[in-house]
Amino acid sequence: MSEPRHFAYLDSVRALAFLAVISVHVAMATGSFPGKSLLLFGGFGVQLFFLASAITLCQSMSERKQLDRYPVAFFYLRRLFRIAPLFWLAMAFYWLIPSLVPPFLLADMAPSGVHASYFWLTAFFLHGWHPYTFDSIVPGGWSIAVEMTFYLIFPLLFFFINSLRRAVIAVFISFFYLKFMLHRGWPCDSLFPFLESHVYSGTPKGLLGFFMGLWFPAQLPVFLIGFLAFYLLREPLVQKAMASKFWTRSLLVFCGLALLNWAKSPAVFMPNGFQIDLTLAGVVIALSGAATRLLVNPIICRLGRISYSCYLVHFAAFGLVVKWLGHGAVLTSVSPSIDAGSRLANLLLFARLFIPSLLLTVVFATITYRFLEQPGIELGRRLIRRISARARHAVLSGAAT
Fold first, then answer.
1. In which domain, by residue range, is 234 found?
2. What pLDDT, in 10s, does the model give residues 61-70?
3. What secondary structure does DSSP assign to 192-241, as a single string?
4. C-alpha dihedral over 308, 115, 118, 204, to 10 degrees?
């Protein structure tokens, strides 16, 4: 069975997304230093993951619907065997060794304690619908819940959003959805007080705010922007422009400057983060073009291919580095950052934490990718080949009779 084309620039996007995520987590644990405020916007690396996911799935589905006998069923099988094995292992690992994760990344997410039902909800990827289960079993697990919810509705979205025009309309609708329903409120002032009073009553406001800022309804516009980017990448005019080094570099520089500007002063006319997501889509389009060898190279692409493993294991790697450097007792949920005494000392501390955390993450992720991710993917492929073979056999048998 033939496989869809592989795009190196999407591996690069995933690598940059992961580097942004690990940077923000290390920066959160460090006192003030020059550039920290910009690094803290690395949290949008998760949205960059979401954009890459939407584009990849659109590209894959557009080709596989011509190749697969049951494209939707096979899509779900591929996603399950791609995501679930490593995530389930992460559930067991982080539950058995919870002290390895800095408390501000996990311990405060279930203030009433972790219950058995949380594990079942997380195992079935339903943990994204309650603040206490959202991120209390696997650190960073909220993004996997959001991703899996997107997978659930992706075939339906792909069916309806089947052109550039429809993608533009979907993004406009998502803009007004964020602007007026989630932020200004219609018919109420906002959705937050309604959920706080009627659905998630008793939840601490800080935790509820974290949840509502990141759960699937708030992230859906990012995926829709991914659809828009996918259809733009198929436009001959965009492809011609991205074949030019001048236009590729110009778009990349423009998006970089725009991100710096949004980080310092978010646009007042757009919902929080929406303008950054649009700009990140521009970065993805720029990376698809010429003159991006500095960012689309074998080393970066290799990191992108193991980025899912990197994302799940970097919490453990960071926790080990914190303990090795003797900061384990200092980094608590009450005091979630380490102050080395000066801005320069904090910058050096950031480097001392970041570099070994990244290296250790790559080592761990290479192992999990080789022995968990790849076998899971291959198992899914074998199952799909078996189903396809049986279906062909049934058709041939029916034709023979």
1. 8-400
2. 998 887 778 8
3. HHHHHHHTSTT--HHHHHHHHHHSHHHHHHHHHHHHHHHHHHT-HHHHHH
4. -90
